[in-house]
Amino acid sequence: MHERSLPASPNWYCSRCSDVCSRGLLGVGAKNIVYLIDVSAASCRVVGELVGHKDLVSGFSFCQHAGQSHICVSSSSDGSIRFWDSDNKTLIREHAAHQSPISAVHWSPVDKNLVVSGDEKGIVVCHWFHTGDTASFFPEPRTIFCLTCSPHSWSTVAVGYKDGMIVLIDVSKKGEVMQRLRGHDDEIHSLAWSPLCGDSRPEDSEVHIVTNGESAGEEKDCYLASGSKDQTLRIWSTVKGKGVMTLKLPYLKKRGSAVDPGVKERLWLSVHWPKGRPTQLVSSCFSGELVLWDLTKTGKQRWTLLGSSADGQNHSRIVFNMSSVHLQDDRELLISTSMDREIKCWDLDSLDCCWTLPTLGGFVYTLTFSPVGAGCLALGVGDNMIRVWNTLTTQNQYDTRSFWQGIKSKVTALAWHPKREGSLSFGTDDGKVGIYDVFSNKPPQISSSYHRKTVYTLAWGPPVPPMSFGAAGGKSSYSLYSCAGEGIILQHDPSKLSGEASDIDKLIRDTNNIKHKLSPHTDLSWKPDGKVVAIGNEDGCIDVYQAPSLKLLCSIQQHHKIINTLRWHHEHSSPPELHGLLASGSSNAIVYVHDLRSVIEDPPDSPVVLTEPYRRLCGHTAKITSMAWSPHHEAQLVTASYDGTAQVWDVLQEAPVSNYRGHVGYLLCVDWSPVDPDVIWTGGKDFTVQEWRVSKQEFTKPPKGKKMVELREKKTNLKQKRKNKKTPGAGGATPSEMNGEPVTGGEKSVTGQELSGEDEEDEVSSTKSPVPPPATFETQRKSSAAAKSKDKAVFPDTLLKKKKPRSMLPLSTCMDHRPKEELLQDCITLASVRHNSAPPAGCVPGQGEHIHLGLFSDRQALHRMFEAEEEGHVEAGHYDSVVYLRLWSGDLEGALQLATEKGELNDHLLSIAPMAGFQVWSRAVEAFVKQLCLQEQYLKAASHLLSINKLYEAVDLLQSHKLYREAIALVKARLPADEPVLKELYTCWAAVLEKDGHLSAAAKCYLAAGASFDAAKVIARKNDVSSLRTAASLARISGEVALAQLLALRCAKDLAGAENWVEAQEVLSSQEGLLVHRLHLCVTELLSVMLADSGVIPQSCVSTHPWASPGGGHISIQDRVRDVWEEQFGVSQKSEGHCSAGALLQELKSVESPAPTTNVPLRQVLLYSSLHLTRSLLSWLLDDDGQLMKELWQAAAWPRDTGHFCVSAELCRLLFPDGDITVCSRKYPRTLPHTEEEEAAAAANSLQAFVHYHRLYERWWSSSANNQQIQNGPPPSAAESCAGDEAKDKVVNGGLSETGVCSPAGEVDKLDFDASLLLCESHAAYQATQRSVREIQERLAAMMLQHSRAQGGQLDSGEKPADASTQMSSTRESSDRRGSTDAGGRPDDQETLLSLSTRMSEHQKQLADLPDTTKMYPRPDVVECCLVLLHCTKSSLPVSESLQQKAKDLLRKYASGPSVLRAAQRFLT
């Protein structure tokens, strides 16, 4: 029937909604239709539809058996299964065995008659095609997501469930569960069996291929692949009943693709096992990619991406279904469907995309060919996208591009620019108008003027005032006109869409002097020459205006219903007498053609009214929606109608030429091919665009009679509904259209209401909601009234009735519903009472049987009636009615009392309570406040307390319920600023905020309460730099000087730790009295920069001052510091006052410096070292040499004692570049005299010894490197020069524990310092005693451990002491260390706790007798220095004989430990 077509989009979130047979025929479920597509490696073609399902198609499968491959089966959400003949497109049989929506169906690959389906309730049904029998099973009470029949056994079916369970059932045994496969923890989206049985064995994450079938005695195994929402693929062994392999989806970087970022999609993991490829598996991925898995490989080599050879081949959204087919040319094709509304074909050998078939996800509202670009067809679709199809390309028959940017609604109107290629204007359902350049990737230009309703029509035409007045100034020669559902036409300036669009109604009124209200416009069409424009109106009238002033030429009053479409005959290659033909279509079925040539060429003085057409085209049975003149013929017109057909007419002969019936449902748009005279394109409600040939159509006229039958049925249903109003929903939905004549007058064919009806169907694939019946969609368009009228028509009257309010007087009301005789007797009784005649005995109006007469008698009778009604309301629990009855009778206090007791007080009662007096009102307010508090309406309760002047009670109420913000606002608004309760509120709120972690808000509360100290403290709790800085500033502003300084110091310390020196100085400079700490930071910064420059610490500075730039390595650090202090901080020997060195030193002494440990970070070490360096420099300014020396010793000791040897060595070099500690400065000539103070002298000697110690190592390394000609390599250590571990430990601990210390270049002939200072015997004895004490302590600890274990009792035979190896090793080490320390001592096994304690006390006495200065200011390890000095003699570094002899003597006397003794032995023999 048709040539090419774009089908509806495949349904989403279905496990198997498409399948392909061995002949290459693809079936795809879209909405409630199955589309049949003929596929090959080169192209595809839609060849037919299977129409009949009333609800969504949820599954589809072909029979894959020879001779039966044309039979297929489909399932639907309505619970039906249908068997089809795909050759004849006919229904074979329908089964309705399911009561719930079917979620999966599959035709068995083994048994040609077996079809298995599963529904959302968990029911599995077997259908036998040849007999029509069915059998139902209920294996698991879970929601079925997918199922697959085994290709190896007819009775085995794998079922995947929503909760991640997979079950294998045997349908030959009433659905008995064979295996439960557990492993996935989310929805099972897809299941696929291995095509071969017993061949692919993915065990232990590998696949072994068994060529000759199965091994002897081994059961044949089958493998099943599953894809789940948990982002994994699993392969299961059906024999073992467990997973043998898990494949996790790779995260692929998504390539740029046209996907609407506002659409959030979930993962769908489909899996397909191609036939003949047991080791290869295809799966979908996160964003539309397809992945081929090679199960024989591992890691990243395991998967390959399909379509990676070129961009744009992959799907851009998640993939739902895959199926494969072997063609006769031995090519294997894979077909995939996706959320991106594309069907793609892949070659499984090359992994490239062969072709792409676009599909449509909504009504096709408009289609139009470009007048400039030949064959360029634009489609406006209800899925919020524009498609532009290049219909003339030969390589790709479906070469389309999608445009979605800037479009958030259905595209209902399109118009190409008459001259500018690629310029396409569009209008949408939400009233937006814009212009796309289809040849660029830019987003569209959007007009700033929006319509309030759906845009119906767009047209390009000459500008009219006010725009035409500026046309000469380079303005565009075309304006864009838009007509929309609210009935107005706007003129947009395409060159300035941001400007205001003009309503042409104003021009029409002014030009034609019209005073009355114009009829709402519904369509417009400019004559091709731009001289006149025809405008259709809602009342069926067509007005023709002359441009540019829009003078009314004539009015055509032919139609009596809303005008849907207007078209002028084209002017190219046609006789002039045809140029004035105007065709019009409305909501009745007749097409009228008027000849306006005479009116246009000879304009009348006053507008004429035309009531007779030039030609009348009759044949359609429903409203006309669109039309197009043939550009190739003279006076041939094609029309599209709601009767579901397109009709070609010979207008002059009023004869039908050809009728096209290929669509399902009504048509919305039509256009004639600009290149082929025989080809027409149509689009409609069935989500398709179809290309068809006029000459190949079977029919020439639209179908007759069908519409009248439907009309009679609808009228019958309508009458039945009116009769049976008490039966809700009887007879189905009421149509809103009768034979093209709408129930409400004046609508157009694609209204907003019909669009909203489409919402259920438009994105039908993304939700499993039913498709509404066709009658629901046959609604009207282009009218604001249509929505209201449709709502009233569709729903039965009983559903629209509002619930009646409860009667205030139910007892008396029910008395009026008695039999007629009793009601007549009531009239006689009432007349007797009114005229004082003798009433019946016992008749008291307002009581008993005559309660209803109280309404017609005196007031006393009314009160009696009220009392009886009140009793009835109380019994029924309707206390609000009782309250109103008392209110009406004047008992206001009683009404309030009752409402209070029953908790029925409300704002209305409270508003009238003052009428009963202040006391009553006050009590009512208090009761209402309690009621509101029970209902947790605290703000309202507090407001009511204010009404009776109970301010403090209102504040307490708010505070007690933690509404501090409102309570504070109330107090500040009503009470004086010094009110004590305000401070209490701020304090309480601050405590709550602080507890919840809202520290900034808490600080504001403390500030408002006058507690600045607490405000600063609470901000500082965060303890980050910005919080501390803020807290310090806050404290300074508030006058809390001590706290401000403390916080500033904390902040500066953190910044210094991060080496942000500039900000650290800024923080300190903002506070007064912190000069000495600024000096300390200055020293730290200089020290860090100089150490980083020398390479001993890493360079990670955030910010630094210009004066701290590296360089000047020959200048000592003391000189640099003094220069910076004097220039930047004004501190020198001459400074006085708070800048004097004495005051600063005194302040700095208060800063504590902890004892150094190896756990202190390097940045902290530099901070503490620079603290002592700062003190030493201040002592220097005060000429206090003793204190200077002690502080310098402390500065050098900090990095050494914390294990940073290289930093200590470099610091000594920076302090004393000449290696002489007496030369303190070069710039400020000063030599430190030998001080008389014992402690200072000891510090000086110790410091000088360490300077020599570092220089000794430098000379030894340099000498060793030069002798061995090693460049940039480590020199030989003492461990390499002498056997034994102890010497190695000594040297490494002493000098080789750090890397990165560069030896000085150049040769060294001799020692250039006095090394005798390193060989001090008193310090050697002190160090030896310390070593002995440590060894004894270790032995005592080992003995105590052994004793405690023995006390614990005998260990179990199977138990091993946890620390046995540790204990043995420590005992061995201690015995090795002890060695021959105590010559002639007792053997190990004879030593006791007593003997060790005795030796310990002797050593401790020796240590106590030593001078304090020896212990306070230690020196480098003497034994180590002796070894290094003696090694230097081996490295051609001359050492004096006396010095060598002294070193040997000290070694003989104080060397301990076997390894050290072995190292010393080579020098002592």
What does this structure look like?
The strands form 17 sheets. The chain has a 5-stranded mixed beta sheet, with helices on one face. Mean pLDDT is 81; it is low at 199-218, 255-262, 725-747, 749-800, 1269-1308 and 1354-1389. Helix 10 (859-876) packs antiparallel against helix 11 (879-888) and helix 17 (964-974) runs antiparallel to helix 18 (980-996). It contains 39 helices and 63 strands. It is extended. It is an alpha+beta fold and 1469 residues long.
Give the total of beta strands: 63
Strand line-up in the sheet with most strands? 44-45-46-47-51
Strand content: 15-25%
Structural class call reads: alpha+beta
Inertia-based shape: extended
Q: What gyration radius follows from the Cα positions, in whole Å?
A: 50 Å
What's the total helix number?
A: 39
Poorly predicted regions are 199-218, 255-262, 725-747, 749-800, 1269-1308, 1354-1389
Termini separation: 116 Å
**What is the averaged pLDDT score?**
81
Largest beta-sheet characterization: 5 strands, mixed
Fraction in helix: 25-40%
Topology:
Elements: E1 5-6, E2 18-20, E3 25-30, E4 33-39, E5 44-51, E6 57-62, E7 71-76, E8 81-85, E9 90-95, E10 102-107, E11 114-119, E12 124-128, E13 134-137, E14 144-149, E15 156-161, E16 166-170, E17 176-181, E18 188-193, E19 200-203, E20 206-209, E21 223-228, E22 232-237, E23 242-248, E24 271-272, E25 280-284, E26 290-294, E27 303-305, E28 319-326, E29 332-338, E30 342-347, E31 352-358, E32 364-369, E33 376-381, E34 385-390, E35 400-403, E36 411-416, E37 423-428, E38 433-437, E39 445-446, E40 455-461, E41 479-484, E42 489-492, E43 502-503, H1 504-512, E44 521-526, E45 532-537, E46 542-546, E47 551-556, E48 563-568, E49 581-586, E50 591-595, H2 597-601, E51 608-610, E52 615-617, E53 624-629, E54 636-641, E55 646-650, E56 655-660, E57 667-672, E58 679-684, E59 689-693, H3 706-723, E60 737-738, E61 741-742, H4 752-762, H5 774-777, H6 784-794, H7 797-800, H8 810-815, H9 820-834, H10 859-876, H11 879-888, H12 892-902, H13 907-912, H14 918-934, H15 938-947, H16 951-960, H17 964-974, H18 980-996, H19 999-1008, ...
Helix pairs in contact: 10-11, 11-12, 12-14, 14-15, 15-16, 16-17, 17-18, 18-19, 19-20, 20-21, 21-22, 22-23, 23-24, 24-25, 24-27, 24-29, 26-27, 27-28, 28-29, 28-30, 30-37, 33-34, 33-35, 37-38
